[in-house]
């Protein structure tokens, strides 16, 4: 499809791919233009504030994807283990079994952290609250559910980092395969 005829979501998806690899500071307009097939003037036409608009569009797209595939299923009816496993399958798909870096992790580093603090905080907060909701349904107190939910997000993000650092995506797979049971384990909360 000619670049000019691509849907906005398709363009944003291509921007997401670049930002996953480079983060905000490393993403040049030339690279973003090349990835989308749009000239710099066309990018500015669609994103008047330049790279900041592009990143905000990526974060909006990401929030929609996470809401649909991760957060909403965690709030659905059903067994907590099933709901957590739905989240984990969605994350496994989104991160291509640990091969794709996390754009959220890229954006909380460098100058982008302050630029997009509200958007990043919102996504992490919604994710943590959705997991906590499921854990409350599983019988944990609100405070214990929140701590376990934070631990879950930490484990997913940490597994992506370590998998990339070791060049071994099995680290991510092992983390996901045990996370639901770890979260639901009765007894002392796991420490990280």
Explain how this protein is built.
With 192 residues, this protein is mostly helical. The protein has helices spanning 8-26, 29-36, 40-46, 51-75, 80-94, 103-107, 112-115, 117-137, 142-166, 170-184. Helix 1 (8-26) packs antiparallel against helix 2 (29-36), helix 4 packs antiparallel against helix 5 and helix 4 (51-75) packs parallel to helix 8 (117-137). The longest helix is centred in the N-terminal third of the chain and has 25 residues, at 51-75. It is elongated and about 55 Å long. The termini are far apart.
The profile of the biggest β sheet is: none
**Low-confidence blocks of residues:** none
Structural category is: mainly alpha
Number of strands: 0
Which radius of gyration do the C-alpha atoms yield?
A: 18 Å
What string, H for helix and E for strand, traces the elements in order? HHHHHHHHHH
Question: What's the mean pLDDT score?
Answer: 91
Rough outline: elongated
Summarize the amount of helix as a percent range.
over 70%
Give the end-to-end Cα distance, rounded to a whole number of Å: 46 Å
Proportion of strand residues: under 5%
Figure out the total of helices. 10
